[in-house]
Design brief:
This protein is 35% helix and 27% strand. The chain is of the alpha/beta class. It has one domain (3-252): Alpha-Beta Barrel (TIM Barrel). Strands 1, 2, 3, 4, 5, 6, 7, 8, 9, 10, 11, 12 and 13 form a 13-stranded mixed β-sheet that branches. The radius of gyration is 16 Å and the shape is globular.
């Protein structure tokens, strides 16, 4: 049995953690350094930091945010947002990230995945896949880029399979239909991706109660459970989630 990992996510804008619903209506959710330190104390296995405005504003990730957060944690940090070149990855890793997550840039230039995996190692390369429901797509899910603002007419599940072939080490799917709603992960989307790749899949978007985390594993096929709102607003602690998953028979690290 694989050990299930909990990954709180810091969505960043203007130096603060923010959280929205369906990628919009952003609200302040605290200081990133304070949140990161708390989540590590609570037992987070990994952490994600997404500079959510970088791609939309056509700029690079703010590396000072990475340095500040990485200085208070020693668990793996995945950085996303504005990662478009091998140099960006170099700088992110130098600033304290252990992995990077790419989305729009990988769609524009799929060779970036292969080049990055070759240079830095597959295990450091996560491909984030944002999608929305669209019946015209073969799988029913359409790939969306630029922070959820631009659908690209490409099937999201087919793209996940291609990402594995190109050298991605982790797939991070987020359903725009579920993001921030706390109504549960989009299990159909998560499962569709986990069915076509042999890589770790991160369930993302919509966690609101303990059952949602369990469902993401047993119904969605995820190995890593990302959540934001429930942790930022202190609705659940990471410890609570892990104890619940252990009681349900899943393997977690509770040290």
């Amino acid at each position: 049995m694989e050990t299930i990992k909990i990954m709180p996510c810091l969505d960043m804008k203007e130096g603060r953690v923010v959280k929205g619903i369906h990628f919009v209506d952003l609200k302040d959710a605290g200081d990133p350094v304070e949140n990161a330190a708390l989540y590590q104390r609570e037992g987070a296995d990994e952490m994600a930091m997404l500079d959510i405005a970088a791609t939309v504003e056509n700029r690079k990730t703010r590396l000072e945010w990475v340095r500040n957060v990485s200085s208070v944690i020693d668990i793996p940090l995945t950085l996303g947002g504005g990662i478009t070149t091998l140099e960006d990855i170099d700088l992110a890793l130098e600033a304290g990230a252990e992995k990077v997550s790419m989305n729009s840039a990988a769609v524009r230039n799929p060779d970036l995945i292969t080049d990055a995996a070759t240079r830095f190692g597959t295990e450091r390369i996560t491909v984030a896949i944002d999608a929305r429901r669209n019946k015209e797509m073969p799988s029913g899910f359409e790939l969306v880029v630029s922070g959820g603002t631009r659908p690209v007419g490409k099937d999201a599940i087919g793209w996940a399979k291609r990402c594995q072939e190109l050298g991605a080490g982790v797939i991070l799917p987020t359903s725009m239909d579920g993001d921030g709603t706390q109504a549960g992960y989009d299990l159909a989307f998560t499962k569709a991706i986990s069915d076509v790749v042999d890589l770790p899949v991160v369930a993302s978007g919509g966690a609101g109660k303990l059952e949602h985390f369990y469902e993401a594993v047993v119904l969605g096929g995820a190995q890593i459970l990302l959540a934001a709102s429930v942790f930022h607003y202190r609705l659940l602690s990471i410890r609570e989630v892990k104890e619940y998953l252990r009681e349900k028979g899943l393997k977690v690290n509770l040290e």
